[in-house]
Sequence to fold (413 residues):
Amino acid sequence: MQIDWIGNMGIVLFENKKTCCGCSACASICPKGAIEMKPDDQGFIYPVVDSNLCVSCGACKKVCAYQNENSLHEPVRAYAAVNRKQEQLAKSASGGVFAAVATYFLESGGVVFGASLDIRNGQSIPHLIGIENIEQLERIQGSKYVQSAVEDTYKQARQKLSEGKKVLFSGTPCQIAGLYGYLKKDYNNLWTIDVICHGVPNAKFFNDYLGVEAKKRGGVPSGYSFRDKKRGWGMNARLDLRCPSGGEKSIYIPARLTSYNTLFLDGDIYRENCYECPYAHKERVADMTIGDFWGIEREHPELLKQDAFDERKGISCILANTEKGVELCKKITDRIWLSESSYDKIARKNGQLSHPSAQSSCRKIIMELYEKAGYDGVEKWFHKKYRKQIIVHSIYNAIPRKVRVALKSIIKN
Fold:
């Protein structure tokens, strides 16, 4: 059986990997089930055509956001924002805006789609899921710095929309563009949220990283948070492990002391298309864009004097890109603290609102090493390449947080 990117009659899904984001719209729309998302040698998923099933109808190309014009929107309003519910704020990566919006939809009988990182039998499964009750909200809270599989969520969203349900769909900008391409028409009962995205590593790479960390620390992965707030708003991870004795333990890992987070932050492990992302600019694809309000201490020092905007607990930014987005912000003012800002202030420390992440010379080295030696090879390379940085950050993280904050304040002044 021939398996390729090309179907019968020569239909080409994409010319090269820089023009495929792995959104799965083509696989979702195929009437014959001839397209399957499969990982390449480095773990990145791409659509693969079964030529025996393909009938060359061309539906796959018609829904591809990379091959068709997207409807993009320049932000109408901009805000700094914080969730009013302390419980939701604590479980969110930054200011908890997504949790507040999702709660509004769920309490009004709607459906919310978002990224979940499930871990089963020690293996992580990053994927989009739909939820319809508040008890499941925690599954889709928090940042996921790995590509989430779309699976059947586009189909599920269309079914719910057809039933007249209010639908909130969140994801990376390319996933939202994929949804619009798949739906092929506007729905009054659909709202979308995209995140300020740096780029996405792949699930296999992340899973192999988890395996190396778990083995090193003596356990089996049972949970993972890319950004745990126990030690404040930032990029510190938490790895939950099931021990051989049957007990559980949690390991807190500062971002710059772990290979995966460091390589993510340095932009060395994303998909090829991420470095030429057509959505990393001011014009946005979703009704609302959310992210961290990095640099708020410079852009809005007056807000940090208010109890509601506590830098230690996280502060979000919102870009309302359509009238739907503006109206949605108005509907949730009883759930979040909102303060007017501007695109320029938010974009100053969120570079991906202006341009894609830059591809470094290290990416090729890392991904080729991963192909040949697995994640163990990447880990050894990281500890050799980043030896000085690891020492500096180890010393820095040994200083009590209160002292670090005080020193930071002295330096600023």
